[in-house]
């Protein structure tokens, strides 16, 4: 006999109670009511339960704390009590794997966060940490519930504390599916990934009205904290979806690359063949002229399983590319200079972007593949004033700290401090190989000759010819990987066409890598 049939067979009093419970739960799913739900849909947004049903495997979601209500009676809040208090929490399966969820319901008091709302989310995070499973947080809220005063602030604090405890222990994904303002932005700021929805989501500490009052500046919500701002300028957003559905699809894909917690290894899927190369092979994709740009994405596609590269923050600091891929079915983090933008130089934003990605991969046991074609750190007064020393040190720190398998391929240029910080042997790389034309030196030929032979060139009969000759000599000495290989700083010099095979061999050999760090409470990364 099924549970349903058993309930129907109960005595009349029990049947009445069961029917009342069903009606109560059905009403709870209506949130703030049909009118507000319609307004939500009219803005191009799904209702909270529609989002949940879209994200989770059919019938797998289990709600927790659905009957929780606010406690405050101030400002007639008691008359607005609705079960759930504006947030749905629970767990279910995404592609068969356990995932925890906290989803704000904008139809209930604008999704505002009060004491019990915050307590529900904090409890959900505690559950996820204990279970060792990822958390997805769907943010759609007007911010703190002002009527609850410090109770609302307490709720935020409890969430931030748990976000921090969970960091590096379980993956945390924030999805901004509406407004996210004031203190609410700091939970996404702590989490590992932040997705936003085009046209309906925004994030900012202080809104346009407050800014106008305090500074006199006039700005729209979109220009202040819309998805394009946080993808292209602030670097807060990891991904922008066209609508709720495509954004949740991205979350599902992202989860397929990462393990449920820091004690497990990433998922492995059946290997997929690489994309077909051009007639001349992968070498044709990288111009031999070191001053000519190209798109590193074309090279990545030739080294990883077909269609497996999932780029993150693609519009932020495009001079460096980061993302997840699969190599022989194994999840792998990719970090690559992109000569198509700023000649592949490393700047303040690129340093931050790459360092945080390296640290995530290391925390969750995901191997790293670094593709190097870098002329150096971006020069300029603005970069120095912005703290390129401190920001560049973050990347050095992140690679040095990482104990996962670290594989590096030098495709073309690797100059100066940028050579060191792009996962060189000196930072503990397990494999460093270079292509035959790789240039590994302190700086490029023109700059080096100008420093070393300035007086000699100036005193010659034909300075221009003398400079050209010195540059030729410098290129013959350094525009190849022989010196680095002779000193043991390269494990091999490989043909471009053999690169994918070499990477796979090393990745296989390092599958059981184990490295202990010195005991300490934690390091002090140059934030």
Characterization of the model:
With 527 residues, the chain is an alpha/beta fold. It folds into 4 domains: 1-30; 41-255, 2-enoyl-CoA Hydratase, Chain A, domain 1 (Alpha-Beta Complex), CATH 3.90.226; 282-438 and 480-509, 2-enoyl-CoA Hydratase, Chain A, domain 1; 443-479, no CATH class. Helices cover 39% and strands 17% of the residues. The protein has 21 helices and 17 strands. The chain has helices at residues 3-8, 12-28, 34-42, 48-55, 115-131, 150-166, 186-190, 208-215, 221-225, 227-232, 244-255, 296-303, 348-363, 381-385, 388-401, 416-421, 445-452, 454-458, 463-478, 482-486, 499-509, and strands spanning 62-64, 87-94, 97-104, 135-139, 172-176, 179-181, 193-197, 202-204, 239-241, 310-312, 320-327, 330-337, 368-374, 406-415, 431-434, 439-441, 492-493. Strands 10, 11, 12, 13, 14, 15, 16 and 17 form an 8-stranded mixed sheet that branches. Strands 1-2-3-4-5-7-9 form a 7-stranded mixed sheet, sandwiched between helices. A two-stranded parallel sheet has the order 6-8. Strand 14 (406-415), helix 16 (416-421) and strand 15 form a beta-alpha-beta unit. Helix 13 packs parallel to helix 15 (388-401) and helix 17 packs across helix 19 (463-478). It is elongated and about 105 Å long. The mean pLDDT is 91.
């Amino acid at each position: 006999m099924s549970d349903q049939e058993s309930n129907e067979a109960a005595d009349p009093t029990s049947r009445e109670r069961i029917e009342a419970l069903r009606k109560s739960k059905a009403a709870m799913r209506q949130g703030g009511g049909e009118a507000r739900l319609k307004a939500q849909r009219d803005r191009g947004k799904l209702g909270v339960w529609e989002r949940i049903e879209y994200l989770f495997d059919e019938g797998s979601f289990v709600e927790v704390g659905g009957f929780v209500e606010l406690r405050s009676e101030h400002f007639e809040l008691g008359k607005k009590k609705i079960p759930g208090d504006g947030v749905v929490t629970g767990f279910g399966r995404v592609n068969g794997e356990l995932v925890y969820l906290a989803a704000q319901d904008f139809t209930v008091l604008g999704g505002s966060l009060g004491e019990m709302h915050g307590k529900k989310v904090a409890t959900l995070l505690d559950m996820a940490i204990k279970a060792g499973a990822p958390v997805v947080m769907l943010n759609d809220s007007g911010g703190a519930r002002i009527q609850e005063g410090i109770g609302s602030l307490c709720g935020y604090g409890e969430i931030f504390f748990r976000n921090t405890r969970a960091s590096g222990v379980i993956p945390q994904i924030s999805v901004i599916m509406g407004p996210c303002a004031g203190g609410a932005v700091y939970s996404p700021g702590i989490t590992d990934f932040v997705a936003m929805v085009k046209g309906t989501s925004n994030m900012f500490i202080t809104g346009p009205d407050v800014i106008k009052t305090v500074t006199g500046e006039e700005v729209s919500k979109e220009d202040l904290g819309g998805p394009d701002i946080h993808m292209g300028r602030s670097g807060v957003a990891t991904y922008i979806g066209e609508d709720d559905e495509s954004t949740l699809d991205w979350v599902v894909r992202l989860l397929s690359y990462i393990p449920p917690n820091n004690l497990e290894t990433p998922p492995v899927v059946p290997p997929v063949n690489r994309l077909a190369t051009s007639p001349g092979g992968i070498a044709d994709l990288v111009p031999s002229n070191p001053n000519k740009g190209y798109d590193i994405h074309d090279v990545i596609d030739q080294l990883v399983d077909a269609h497996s590269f999932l780029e993150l923050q693609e519009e932020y600091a495009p001079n460096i590319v980061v993302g997840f891929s699969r190599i022989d079915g194994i999840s792998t983090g990719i970090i690559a200079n992109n000569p198509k933008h700023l000649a592949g130089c490393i700047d303040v934003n690129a340093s931050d972007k790459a360092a945080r990605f390296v640290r995530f991969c290391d925390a969750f046991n995901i191997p790293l593949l670094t593709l190097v074609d870098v002329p150096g750190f971006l020069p300029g007064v603005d970069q120095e004033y912005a703290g390129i020393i401190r920001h560049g040190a973050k990347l050095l720190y992140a690679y040095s700290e990482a104990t996962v398998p670290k594989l590096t391929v030098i495709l073309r240029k690797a100059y100066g401090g940028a050579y060191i910080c792009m996962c060189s042997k000196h930072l503990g790389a397990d494999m460093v190989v270079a292509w035959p034309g790789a240039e590994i030196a302190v700086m490029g030929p023109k700059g080096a000759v100008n420093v070393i032979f300035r007086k000699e060139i100036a005193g010659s009969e034909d300075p221009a010819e003398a400079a050209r000759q010195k540059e030729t000599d410098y290129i013959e000495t350094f525009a190849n990987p022989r010196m680095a290989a002779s000193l043991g700083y390269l494990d091999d010099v490989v043909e471009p066409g053999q690169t994918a095979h070499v990477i796979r061999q090393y990745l296989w050999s390092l599958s059981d890598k184990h490295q202990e760090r010195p005991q300490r409470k934690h390091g002090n990364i140059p934030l």
